[in-house]
């Protein structure tokens, strides 16, 4: 499961599980621009091509501590 994104200015801090380290050159924490989970995934894909495919399908994330089972259009942080 992806740990909760934390807002850092206009960026979200995304924590990835260790199982994805081989797709991110070992990076497990990254700041990504985006207002929705879908936008965050697109940002991750831009930096780490192929990562979005690993995150596709059934995905649950925590946003500000709340687990969201169908998160793709969920907003992250406050506007």
Brief synopsis:
This protein has 79 residues and is an alpha+beta fold. Helix content is 20%, strand content 28%. The radius of gyration is 11 Å and the shape is globular.
Task: Report on the architecture of this protein.
The protein is of the alpha+beta class. The protein has two helices and five strands. A hairpin with a 2-residue loop joins strand 1 (3-8) and strand 2 (11-15).
**Range of helix content:** 10-25%
Class based on secondary structure composition and strand pairing: alpha+beta
Kindly estimate the percentage of residues that lie in beta strands according to DSSP. Answer: 25-35%
Number of distinct helices = 2
Instruction: Measure the end-to-end span.
Output: 25 Å
Q: What radius of gyration results from the CA coordinates?
A: 11 Å
| Oligomer type | single chain
Q: What is the residue-mean pLDDT, rounded to a whole number?
A: 80
Lateral arrangement of strands in the main beta sheet: 1-2-3
Inertia-based shape: globular
* Element-by-element helix/strand order: EEEHHEE
- Characterize the main sheet: 3 strands, antiparallel
Low-confidence stretches: none
- What's the total count of β strands? 5
